[in-house]
Amino acid sequence: MSPFDETFAGGLDTAVWTPSYLPAWSSRAAAAATWRVADDGLYLTIPPDQPLWCADDHHPPLRVSGVQSGNRSGPVGSTDGQQPFRPGQRVREAQPTVLGLTPHHGTIEVETRARIGPSAMFSAWMVGLEDAPERCGEICLVEVFGDTLADGRAAVGSGIKAFRDPALVEDFVAEPRTLDVTAWHRWSVDWRPGHVAFAIDGEPTRTCDQAPDYPVQLMIAVFDFPEHPGRDSADPADVPELVVRRVRHRPLVDAQPNARPSPR
Asked: CB-side exposure of 108: number of CA atoms within 13 Å?
């Protein structure tokens, strides 16, 4: 796999990025992000009129604008989809296979700034393609909820989420840090066989002595939870915004090539 360096200078390349959040469970149109590209990167926002995601199925209600560097599913009516949020969930719209960036090991960096109120959060994470159900583990680069922001500090989540991968165990923490999410920050992981090292702005933060052992896709999104008790629609921060300035992947020398999903 060749190095990948995305600054969105040429716009949003839909051969790489799908601007809908897990669209198999609804549709690409219903899960579409609100986005634009400007000189300083990709803007993901959630305006007041953006509809709920999977409105008749997901509880509590949420809205989301996100992009993902891979997308796939089985046929309508099957359970062959990515990141199901309940047992037995069925595909509502079959998805084409798009493998824009699907690394297997290497260094991955995502540079962002965000504006979020108490009812919002943003995240960047890498998750298995789920070409087999157990290939679903997650490496979370960053996860920040707006209700943890206070006095120049934020609870910054990172780590491994096992989901249905029997080879992984949950190892996710949200650690309070002196950090202003409205400023630019570089969230990164160095991913090697059986080991992941996390860093913020080049400073090491934590390590995990386990890792998914299959290709992953990158997900970057901002979320809004309309029923959150801290919601204030008069506050500009309650129109959540995430700006992505750069995404990079540097493969290991002996990294495996960009892998295609295997038959289920």
From this structure: 24
